[in-house]
From TrEMBL, chains A, E, F:
This is Sodium-dependent bicarbonate transport family permease. The keyword Membrane applies. The keyword GTP-binding does not apply. Keywords: Membrane, Transmembrane, Transmembrane helix. The chain crosses the membrane at residues 12-31, 43-62, 68-90, 102-123, 135-153, 180-198, 210-231, 243-268, 274-296, 303-325. It holds the Pfam family Sbt_1.
From TrEMBL, chains B, C, D:
It comes from the Bacteria. Pfam families: P-II (PF00543). This is Nitrogen regulatory protein P-II. InterPro entries: N-reg_PII, N-reg_PII-like_a/b, N-reg_PII/ATP_PRibTrfase_C. GO terms for biological process: regulation of nitrogen utilization. GO terms for molecular function: enzyme regulator activity. Transmembrane segments: none annotated.
Length: 334, 103, 103, 103, 334, 334
């Protein structure tokens, strides 16, 4: 316990978390500090490119083993199943109506790539080894949750009087799949992964001064923006009700628990296991909201983003990282 | 300078369904349209602002110049395509110089 | 297609006092508003252009759709809030479909 | 609240000839104008979108508030300046509060 | 004298000044070269973050001494008092009406962080030692001048017939203070300073490849943009009248002189002293214009920016830096 | 032959080409991946600054010899004469009407600086020496082609019934020249070149961490955007007709051939010769379109950009680079 508290305290003093806190504080105080939208998008593109390519290079260098493939499968399954758990909690504890609860649940089955990135930076700082190709699992877990969310909405979303259950003019499935799988960040993450895998270490070296060296500093700037966004989100929509808030903390903890169990069953080592736990615990705020907006326009998209961006994301970054790392180190092999 | 009466249709809508409205505009045979950026606002769905990377809040404005007859046909179509989604449609009178340029 | 007459109020104003105008719009009970970016212009205070980091030149456009009665009340309030600051207010007629959507 | 009738001229035009239109606006003695960004559209010259670094597609919207008399003089000048280039000109009625502010 | 001329010539050939000159030339020739606004903002955010964090780290490593605290106090006082001097010069020499003269005076009491940054780069090139924590004094000097400017405007701004002296609907003081202290660049500068101080050298190392190494190159790009802005500003507003122009050069020279005197009295060494002189000599074009715009809308904000951005800034960057360095080296202890 | 195929295969697996391909694929699949416009402009500004400064530094260090001056002259001549050849091919083979053919021809006489940049990266990878000051020739070749294009349009553009040949309100020559010579990228390229030449290696060192080290990675990101642009261009305008398409490949090949001949006659070594060939083969999509748009508004500007950006550029990057390098190595002295 003491060491968790100490790790949490150290995490609190990392530049990463401090810049996030600065963003939160500036946003909360209504400072006019703002990262221009184009820059925020560029930072996010940079992080995707970098993490994707790093993953591909790692794959090219280390190859693939059976345990990794199993973990891939487990990730896909986890992303598809977590929304069912999340749905129940958001309905019961959060008191959210069915269609919105289904949409929110999809966010929590999917993952937050920035949380994943922060976790890799955390592990590097803590000196705990992990494989860069874990990012492939992150990419695989982006989308299955969306199917689960749609299923839940169609199954439990009672039609309003005289209207169709979900949307009068529902987007065709092809368009939906397109929106999801060709989402810019998913495309880039996977594309850069493949490029890294094709070029291997040699290709990586030639672009390292841009693609890898500034990574941690860029992450700080990006987290500053995330802090600003989270604070502004809260200012615009207000804090969710206590039950909903609680669910926004409990669902990631449950996701972390389930993921830890899987990692233990598959004999995954601590570093990779911690990253898998982070994937289970984190919630999407880029790919999934766009898809839900299109497919379930009547769901409360604002609440979904408030929860994933302004409740779960800060929780994971500030308290979650040291907690998940401690859990992984306690229960998984080194 | 002779001018001709047209309708100016102005739509404020979520970027997510831009393609749907453009499809309706083209299907009805309008000669063109223009899209403008929008940076924030407030309506029945609450206040929003273009803030960084989070999606779903993104909106834009589409302007179509059309003959009164075309406008009469087009507006209900646009209205239907926007059902369930947040946004507004306005129509006003404008004058243009060359009538043939617009349908 | 039945339409209803509303007023479209368009304000071009310095970003510095956006909050003040929005406060007036909300205080009078308008159902919504939309803000648009502006990139340059010229008026009695001279020409300006969005150029980089220097402040003070930044402007934006605010559009409010309101009933004629509300517009009659709102415009003088907006006008007063803009006194001393550079900017213009316009009002024109528009038609909307659902009347209830706007106050 | 007493208002005055003016004309709102709205031009969508290629950025390449912005300077030419502004010159015409100033030459005719308009008291001001405002430029707005535009992000895409379609017309007789095909569809376009602001995409990155390639030039030629860039467009913008210029809005001029002018007295009916000035508008009558200005619009043909603008029209001539735009010959050969892609773009549209619209004119509509607006009300302003202070008449003196606009010429 | 010979060595000042030589230093000035060398300064003229530094990439920093040359890129500024390129911007001036391109803007003057009406080239369509332009740094997109979002990029200019990002560059400025980067510079603030970097210089702030560097300062905080220096504080963490070197601690604080009494002389530094005295200099902080002196800086605050200088920022508050310089506007009175500037007001007289802009009224008498510049022939500017009271409210505008008060607003402009506030700009000259405050500081230009980019001039400060250019001065640190100049010192580094010249091999003259200084303490990175001097940036804290820059942050402290941003705002007191605003109070002085407002005082001057209220004291001397004769009300126009039938209207209030300053503004019919004057912004409440709280809003003003908010606008000033929570100005984005002030927030970021101070926030990054605190972060640097909290994380110390270790936190700095992990982000150095992004936060510190590219600093000088980024400054070149930013100065290119400043040159473009200054030239466009002049093209839009025309050159100020000779008297006004002269005041735009004399006021910074007086500011420099007073600051040098203070530095000598407090026994500040040459490097830090030169930076203090630069703070005295430079004029704000970010935080103060925004505040004045809100508080004194009837002041000629355009003239204020023309003076600070297109007259004083180039003067300081091109001639001021070597001059102030020479003054500091001649009069202060090494 | 075998070695060309191998070089082509290796080029295909370079990060540069792979990111370009990723952009093409994402754009073709209508992914919503997009580089914000401001970022794309900043990347292009960065590349111009970097390559220009590198060139100037090389000039300062290596000086100038007669052969280089001759090559400069040859480049200017080539840029002026190539459009005549291109005009014939686009008229005959492409079946394009005179004014548009003239406008397109001007694009092919001019050069694509990004293709040039990619060629320097290619040579560096391939270990073939070249002189960085070659970029001066690229700058010189930007504009002469425009004169040739205008001449062709005025000579062969038959006036439509009752209207002037080219444009009812033709821009005055001064405005045209302004538009061309003060085009942002030309200004920056030349400005940075002069700065590099003035500061020499010492100035370069102080900004290297920003200006030179990240170069190749930035190029990858920029090529990703170019791929997206090319794919979107094709989606918007459709593939040109077979004859036009063929001309879009043949004209660069002819340009390459003529340039190779000149390089051989002047006794230019293989590395520099390959760069000269690339200048001959590449087509402008920044400076020339803007000038043509203004001067020849009735020309089909869309087709010109489709050809240069979506046909010739990919051809040059993917197949052209290894081909031209092989040609240069076979026919020029090492
Ligand atoms: N009365 C109004 N005037 C101007 N814009 C409005 C108005 N009502 C709504 N809007 C715009 O349309 C968007 C969606 O409206 P709503 O669906 O009512 O939330 C708002 O966010 C505003 O940008
Ligand atoms: N006649 C006009 N037509 C269009 N926009 C105008 C007009 N007059 C002023 N504006 C806009 O309003 C801003 C402020 O006007 P002013 O307070 O007159 O300087 C100008 O910079 C323009 O953007
Ligand atoms: N009917 C229309 N409604 C709205 N905007 C139009 C219309 N026609 C043309 N435009 C705009 O004007 C631009 C140039 O039109 P054109 O010269 O017809 O290609 C188009 O790209 C659109 O942005
Ligand atoms: Na998850
Ligand atoms: Na000062
Ligand atoms: Na060429």
């Amino acid at each position: 316990m003491a060491s968790i508290a100490q790790a949490a305290a150290e995490n609190l003093l990392s530049p990463m978390v401090l810049f996030f806190a600065l963003g939160l504080a500036a946003g909360w105080a209504k400072s006019d500090l703002a990262i221009p939208e184009a820059i925020a998008k560029a930072l996010s593109i940079y992080l995707m490119m970098s993490i994707g390519m790093k993953g591909g290079i790692a794959l090219a260098e280390n190859g693939i083993d059976q345990r990794f493939l199993l973990l891939c499968l487990a990730g896909i399954l986890l992303s598809f199943l977590l929304p069912f758990l999340a749905y129940v909690l958001f309905r019961r504890l959060g008191g959210i109506e069915p269609v919105s609860a289904a949409a929110i649940a999809a966010h929590y089955g999917s993952i937050s790539i920035v949380t994943y990135i922060a976790a890799t930076a955390y592990l590097r700082e803590a000196g705990l080894a992990f494989s860069d190709q874990m990012v492939a699992i992150a990419a695989l877990m982006e989308t299955p949750a969306i199917m689960a969310g749609l299923f839940l909405a169609h199954r439990f979303g009672a039609p309003a009087a005289g209207t169709a259950a979900i949307s009068a003019n529902r987007p065709p499935l092809g368009r939906m799949a397109h929106e999801v799988f060709l989402n810019g960040s998913v495309t880039l993450l996977i594309g850069a992964f493949v490029i890294g895998w094709l070029t291997g270490g040699k290709g990586g070296e030639s672009v390292a001064a841009f693609m890898f060296d500034p990574f941690k500093g860029v992450l700080c700037l990006f987290l500053l923006d995330m802090g600003l966004l989270a604070a502004r989100r809260l200012a615009q929509s207000g804090l969710p009700r206590p039950g909903t808030l609680l669910a926004g903390i409990l669902v990631p903890l449950c996701g972390a628990g389930v993921a830890l169990l899987i990692a233990a069953l598959l004999g995954i080592p601590a570093g990779n296991g911690m990253l898998f736990v982070v994937l289970g615990a984190s919630a999407s705020y880029i790919a999934v909201p766009a898809a839900m907006r299109l497919a379930l326009p009547r769901a409360d998209g604002g609440l979904a983003i408030t929860l994933s961006l302004a409740v779960t994301f800060p929780f994971n970054i500030v308290l979650g990282l040291p907690l998940y790392a401690a859990m992984a180190q306690a229960l998984l092999q080194p | 300078m002779q001018t001709h009466r047209k309708k100016r249709i102005e739509i404020i809508v979520e970027s997510a369904i831009e393609h749907r409205l453009v499809a309706a505009i083209e299907a009805e045979g309008a000669s063109g349209y223009t899209t403008h950026p929008v940076i924030g606002g407030k309506g029945h769905h609450g206040a929003w602002q273009e803030i960084g990377i989070t999606p779903g809040s993104g909106k834009l404005a589409i302007v179509v110049i059309a003959s009164p007859e075309l406008a009469e046909r087009l507006v209900p179509k646009l209205y239907a395509a926007m059902a369930d989604y947040s946004g507004v449609i306005l129509m006003s009178d404008v004058e243009v110089i060359r009538s043939a340029h617009f349908s």
